[in-house]
Amino acid sequence: MNIEKKLTALSERISYAREILGGSLRPELEAFALEVAGFKDKHGRKSAEDQFKTLEALDRRLSALEEALDRQLTPMDKVRIVRHPQRVCLKDILENVYDNYSEIGGKDEHSIDPGMLIARAYISRRKGKKLINQPVMVVGQEKGHGEEFRNGGSIKPWGNSKALKYMKVAARERIPIHAYVNTPGSYPVEDFPGAAQQIAENIYEMAGLEVPIIAIFSEGGSGGAEAIGMADKRLMMSHGYYSVISPEGAAAIEGHIRGPERAPVELIASCAKSQMITAQDNLRNGYIDEIVEEPPLGARPDHFDFYKRLREQVVRATDEVTLSVRGVRLFRALALRHFRKNLDIIVRWDMSESARERLVARRYRKYRRLGQHAYQDKRSFWEKLNAARSGVVSSTYSSVRYGLLKPLKQNIQRIAEEVTDEIHVITGKIDSIYRSVAGKIGMKSPIDNAKVMELTSLSRDDSNGHLDNGTSYVSPQAREDREVSCPYSAKRGCMDIWAKDLFTDFAGVCPTCGHHFPMEYQWYLHNVFDEGSIREFNRDIVAGNPTGFPNFDERIEAAKDKTGLGSSCMTFHASVENIDLTCAMLIAKFRGGSVGAAEGEKFIRALEIAQKKHRPFLAYIHGTAGIRIQEGVNGLIQMPRVTLAVRKYIEAGGLYIVLYDTNSYAGPVASFLGCSPYQYAVRSSRLGFAGPGVIRETTGIDIPPNYHNCYKALSRGHIQGVWSRRDIRKNLHQSFLTIGGRNLYYR
Prior knowledge:
Blueprint: H1 3-20, H2 27-37, H3 39-43, H4 48-71, H5 75-83, H6 90-97, E1 100-104, E2 116-127, E3 130-141, H7 157-173, E4 177-183, H8 195-206, E5 213-221, H9 222-229, E6 233-243, H10 247-254, H11 265-274, H12 279-285, E7 290-292, H13 304-324, H14 330-338, H15 353-369, E8 376-377, H16 381-440, H17 449-456, E9 483-484, H18 489-492, E10 497-498, H19 499-502, H20 521-527, E11 535-537, E12 541-542, H21 552-563, E13 569-576, E14 579-586, H22 597-613, E15 617-621, H23 633-636, H24 638-651, E16 656-660, E17 663-665, E18 678-682, E19 686-688, H25 692-699, H26 710-715, E20 721-723, H27 728-738
Parallel strand pairs: 3-4, 4-5, 5-6, 6-7, 14-15, 15-16, 16-18, 17-19, 18-20
Antiparallel strand pairs: 1-2, 2-3, 8-12, 9-10, 11-13, 13-14
């Protein structure tokens, strides 16, 4: 390397260090920069050999300075590292970690979404004279190095759909998946298939892929990370971050920033620290399994030792996942666990059918264990003991009734039906002859019209357009002695309505245009479910502040005092028209219905109980603002955790219905709610992936006022129907009778 190139390289390293430090002055770095800038003036007359030796000494000093600066990096510094154009990208990794690869699903800008890169790659391993080529499917967000057409790794719905398509190909071909997560978040568009819906589908389907999945995190931004981040083993680069929201987004929420304003730099840095977003934080909390150490100040394209280290850890992680579900594995598993360096072990990545089944079951158990430290369980010892006893009783009863007696009953019934159908062939012929003779002599067969109607009519509406309240609950809004104007009165000619009539007889529905005014969650408890049937459980699992976010303990306690609730999720058993069900309700009154560790845990436990009791499950979403940002990844991890529980429940034959009301956005909609095959919305509700403010901030686009309207969601295929509030009870009962799985108790 000549002297000019060496000087240029040193200058570039200094500029890079300045940029990732965010402009904060470091005297030692500035002094070194002055020394490099004055190199020619001071050493220009020396011989080339002496100049080169001096430059070598400067290089060693800069390396030592980089190591010192690396130890002082803040979480926000690491955010700047992963966003820097010089950050190692997926193509660099494909070129240097894998032995051969072919990019598929489009290339560069000639792709449905250039931000999502898919490649069929090989890792070659030598054992003696034998060379073994092991194929993998590599998927990941690709930012490139300043390539604007890749949209900074912010993936559109169709990009996530492409990733899922090829992950399914990998499952069919029975090869492992290596997913490289490097995104600030998904691009918030609702056009079909919709950002939220596609992320939800990705998480749901990845939960059941019967091949090892290894995820490697660099920048893990919110739902965009979860779209490909569900994995059996999760590695994270030491300078990466994994977060429920960007530090800037968190600061905007915390600082109540509106419009074109920007949050103060100090607040952004504080949020980055408080959310516990670094690799070290996530390893400590159990949300990643291993850290891949990077060079000082982060991995860049020419750091070849880093690629070697990454390859070793990715290969070992794939080996460990494969061996964990194998039959014959004792010595190799011990060697991988205790002698990690310089291993000469070959693990073939193909698995038997039983091993693949164990892999999926192990994946569920892994995510079920996550986040157990992040909520407060205030149940007494006796309450916990009673819950455990109830679970054992329910499991035993379920095994006997549905595992032994029901199959026997079905077999007997099937044989009886076959015999009956055979007999009908004979009796039908006799009946045909009888009708023919009766017609010729003028006789008419008696017809039971009531019986015909019973057989041919699916249901009928007995309400005559009136809601049968039948309870003592009255909305506080009905106690106000005033007239209420419909917000659409100027456009639709709606008359003013007296508050008492509107919020009692009309159930908060404008009698002219059908606009739905917001109603309290208590209204639904008293008007949708059978009177006296609600039995709440797990009330004492309550929200906390697992990250120690500044001033958040007070806000959580204030929400508990104001609402009388311990979290935004209420779980209970109830019935509708004598059909027993289990319900999880997200309540907007408690912190906007946001979801954290307590809400996720309650949701999962409710699903597990519903599965044991063979009951249909209703997720009634009174409103949700998304994942609770103050809980950091403790909240974000609920997206895959609860989705896995939903999948397990549905796969067991359960009926999972989601009903949205008011405003429902972000993480829950993009995971455990959006994966339901039966999603409905109450009229006048709004739902989607991101609110108007977030879309404006991330895309610069002002969306139309009706962009998130439930009818728009219906036309895009997000939901399957729009219900009037006054018809919820009737429509739910209809749904329980006509849709659902094979395993429900009343089938």
